Amino acid sequence: MNTKPNAAVSLAWEGAGQELTDNSEGVRACLAALDRPVYAVADKSGMRFSNNGMPVSANGKTANLAGWLAPLPLEALGDATFRSTYGCRAAYYAGGMANAIASEEMVIALGKEGLLGSFGSGGLSSQRLTQAVDIIQAALPDGPYMFNLLHNPFDPQMEQGTVDLFLDKKVHAVEAAAYLRLTPALVQYRAAGLSKGSDGAVRIENHVIGKVSRREIALHFLNPAPEKILTQLVSAGKITAEQAELARLVPMGDDITVEGDSGGHTDNRPTISLLPGILALRDQTQAENRFAQPVRIGAAGGISTPASALAAYMMGAAYVVSGSVNQACMESGACEYTRQMLAKADMADVGMAPSADMFELGARVQVLKKGSLFAMRAQKLYELYNTYESLDDIPAAVREELETKVFQRTIADIWQGTADFFKQRDPEQIEKAEQSPKKKMALVFRWYLGLSSRWSRDGVEERRMDYQIWCGPAMGAFNEWARGTYLEDYHGRHVADVAWQLLRGAAYTYRVQALKLQGVEIPAEIQSYQPQQAG
Asked: Which residue of 30, 144, 199, 341 has the fewest CB atoms within a 10 Å radius of its CB?
């Protein structure tokens, strides 16, 4: 760690005087040279800075070294084992956004820069997901890449099919999101990648990053897989007895991403309050389990500026995760109009709405409310669902308003399409709906909630006022930081460049703060990092 020289030791700077600078741009360049040390020298001319020279004992010289910093490569941010596990250059990844909004292009662009990205698998058909796996693996045969594995308690067969695909295609890293409990499919994925090395140690081939916002969910990933599920999997022939035994020796997750206030599914909990508690919980469970490699804890939600990224690292995050900001980048699977809306968003332009996948449970997602009526209309549907027991119970005037203004289709047409869809995918859903008018109402309402995010992705112009755009306050913070720079125009936003700018900015901000802690005054106009376009 860079620390202030011991007060009992007088140090002087030794070097060529012409290498010292005190003008703002010179000092900024000095701080931005992350691969070089920084010396702050106080002399009769005031405080000056240099990347060259060395600290020496004063020995009769003027003790003029007011502060110094060692080089700070970007690799020093976060946990080095995260980089080695996933084969990436930085302790950072771009989180998965469903419906391929975190697209193949996004994952590949990041991977070619040595950065990890998670493909947004949620809501895709098996055929579409297979296509994505093939495209990404062809472009990044050696990685790094990851796929989102989204839990849906109402469709366990889809989750199992996704896991079967990942195992068959040898996808060795998943971001497990929206889990309320561990499922046989997720445990199978983890255990099927376990083997014993020649040294007797457990070898982990299938890596799991659990995305959580609650203590009780974190515990699932901090501990070994449940004995009951392991026994079931062995009996079903899905894993071997040896794999089950090895699964008892490792945690379910290599990593846990602590997700604070974010776009999409969120509990709106502030990362600054949530992260320390999960870190303490990890330390507690590690003391009990004594795993060879402790579970790493990363931070997501609100990571959109150098200051927020640095704050997470300094709080103990092993890595940081970006989300909303990537949706406005050119590689995003969102349509042009959606990217344009996101690039104009302020922090207050977001709101909560019922989610499509867990509508009946009352789960909610955070979305962009400016420029769209989705949040208001989705909330109205949830209120109707809680008020009435069937579609027939809804007053005729309200039904007509739904059909003409919200759905823009008759309820009968929606139900017919919904029935046709589930007859091919999950006939049990239709059987339940035919026996329960309440269930039928939920499926009709979920038609709107599910399609609204696809309209945003695909750019369906006539449904712009119904776009469901997952977005957290971080988007507004990024836009504020980017204002006046080349990143203000979303056409200039590219996911890998945004990642490097955030990381360089975090390192730069650390250097500023570390010198200030040593009593060195830094000119106010250069204390904040501004995006610098390469070349």
From this structure: 199
